[in-house]
Amino acid sequence: MVERRSTLGILAHAVMILGVLIVAFPLYIAFIASTHTSQAILQVPMPMSPGGHFWENYLAALNGHGGGAGSNAPVARMMWVSLVTALVITFGKIAISLLSAFALVYFRFPLRGLVFWAIFVTLMLPVEVRISPTYKVVSDLGMLNTYAGLTVPLIASATATFLFRQFFLTVPDELVEAARIDGAGPMRFFKDILLPLSKTSIAALFVIQFIYGWNQYLWPLIATTGEQMYPVVVGIRMMIAGGDSGNEWNIVMATAILAMLPPAIVVILMQRWFVKGLVDTEK
Amino acid sequence: MEKRVRFDSQVLPWMLVAPQLAICAVFFFWPAAQALLQSMQVQDSFGLSTEWVGLENFKTLFNDSAYLESFKVTAVFSLLVAVLGIALSLMLAIFADRIVRGALFYKTMLIIPYAVAPVVTGVLWVFMFSPSIGVVAYGLDHVFGFQWNHLLNSTHAMTMIVTAAVWKQISYNFLFFLAGLQSIPKSLIEAAAIDGARPWRRFWTIQFPLLSPTTFFLLVINMVYAFFDTFAIIDATTHGGPGRDTAILVYKVYQDGFKGGDLGGSAAQSTVLMLIVITLTVLQFRYVEKKVQY
User: Fold this and answer.
1) Percent of chain A scoring above 70 in pLDDT
2) Quick check: helix, strand or coil at residue B7?
3) Among A79, A165, B169, B280, which residue's Cβ finds the most Cβ atoms within 10 Å?
4) Which of B106, B127, B175 is closest, CB to CB, to A253?
5) Does A244 sit within 8 Å of B132, measured CB to CB?
6) Does the pLDDT value for residue A283 go beyond 50?
């Protein structure tokens, strides 16, 4: 810093603390509510310090023993569905994009430009603009209420393909030449040289796509019809259908905390790659 | 940019792009083409016969006051989300950039909302703002004597979804601004300081102009976010109400097409949305091109 001013330093910390408080407030309220009985929460104003029903509430949520007026499906099953969905989407996207970026950068084949544009154009067609027809395709293929239906339509990713393409273009040509002289074919080069070099990009994409997959809402909402296949973000929405006093808010908030835990842990533990990946993918 | 050295093969590259192309074709192009087609057709209520009507659906759409109202709601909503979100995050990033001690802690706390699903954000907001049991509603009433009721008052409902959407997006904006600020050469700031420019002035004459590409980029990204990704927030909080005062375009497509069964009208709405995304994407790429010249 160019100059030291204690007043500005104090102001900076004050602003940051205020920002952190604003960000943390809803999370704090959710946590507090998840440790009380539902009666305690309905007594306005609700308590502002943790209560003693932590285990009770979380176990009730996980096993589906709540008595709210909305859905009371077991959250443990939903967490499992979310985890499988998010992981399949993440690894599927990374695998498919690595392969197509490799083909686009390292081969010359007819219609290459067209393929590039076909992938690129998908950026302009988010699920939201083609809800009904996509639903029809998936239901015709018999993929409603299956993991395939939840994941495959979301696996194509222009963003990931572009990130890998950008990265491959910066890999020195000498490596290809060296690999060729040593007699390595394209797939050998891909596996032994390109993949190890792409580790950082893959880690960054892992974080971004895992959160994307875990937090998907609209697609699972229309591609599933039974509680058995609800991811947790859809399940929690069904839970609050009981209305302000009909809901067991302690169970709902325990579910909210459970639903945000996995993506939050991934973001915090992989913060460095996440920030890099996010800033790099600015498509 | 192109590679000088390449592999020669006619079959292998097609096998490599096949999975991606297959998914794009089945789940992107085919449905999008269907949407375009349906937008020019009318189906009877049993789906037995379809009639070709050309641009009739679009005409109906733009004569529908509810649809025009939804356009207005979307414009207000996305502008508020973009402007407030950007201003708030920029302020936080500017101060975070000055801080050395505790920087990692602040940064970690500020990126947590990124991990929270929009629908979970919505659920938290419903809980906090509930007129009967919500902590925030209670606080507003007892501290300021302000009667909060987003179920009846559309300004309150709009405020609620805007704050939820902004809260969720702070992380993203903050990280981009921080990265942008840290890439500004320190020598520029030092030179200005030697010339006697105070921090406030340095911000407006050096940092803010140099951040303008980032700001523009974030403006587009935030518009896209407000247009599409906030569906879950609205579905969990206001359901487009009171009346239709918070029914943004995406929510209306879902309500009319998926819940209401008006395929032609919904497809026409989808087509309009597609045009909006294309415009925003093109804008975004203009930015990328400009940035490359730097």
Assistant:
1) 96
2) strand
3) B169
4) B127
5) yes
6) no
Q: Does B68 touch chain A (CB under 8 A)?
A: no
Average confidence score pLDDT of chain A: 87
The pair phi, psi for residue B51, each rounded to 5°, is -125, 140
Q: What is the pLDDT of residues B218-270, one digit of tens each?
A: 888 898 889 888 999 999 998 887 888 888 988 988 888 777 767 777 888 88
Q: Rounded distance, CA A79 to CA A257, Å?
A: 12
Q: Has residue A18 got a pLDDT over 90?
A: yes
Amino acid letter for position A160: A
- Is some CB atom of chain A closer than 8 A to the CB atom of B21? yes
By C-alpha distance, which of A159, A190, A196 is closest to A176? A190
Query: Could you tell me the pLDDT band of residue A57, with boundaries at 50, 70 and 90?
Result: confident
Domains annotated for chain A, with CATH where assigned, are: 6-63 (no CATH), 75-279 (1.10.3720.10)
pLDDT in tens, A198-221: 988 899 889 989 999 999 998 998
Asked if B125 has any chain A CB less than 8 Å from its own CB, the reply is yes
Q: Point out which residues pair with A107 in neighbouring strands.
A: B7
- What is the model's pLDDT at position B292? 41
Nearest CA in chain B to A275: B175
Dihedrals φ, ψ of B7, to 5°?
-90, 150
Between the alpha carbon of residue A245 and those of residues A22, A74, B142, B152, B242, the distances in Å are 26, 21, 21, 18, 20
Both structure tokens of A269? 């533990």
Contact B232, A218 (CB under 8 A): yes
Could you give the percent of chain B with pLDDT greater than 70? 94
Average pLDDT over residues A57-86: 86
- B38, B98, B138 ranked by CB distance to A45: nearest: B138
Beta-bridge partner residues of A83: none
Alpha helices in chain A (DSSP H): 6-33, 38-42, 54-63, 75-106, 112-121, 131-140, 147-155, 158-170, 173-181, 186-189, 195-197, 199-214, 218-223, 232-239, 249-269, 271-280
Instruction: Give yes or no for B201 touching A (CB within 8 A).
Output: no
What the block records as the tokens of B99 is 């801080």
Q: Report which DSSP code applies to A46.
A: P
Q: What is the ipTM of this complex?
A: 0.89
- Distance of alpha carbon B108 from alpha carbon B175, whole angstroms: 11
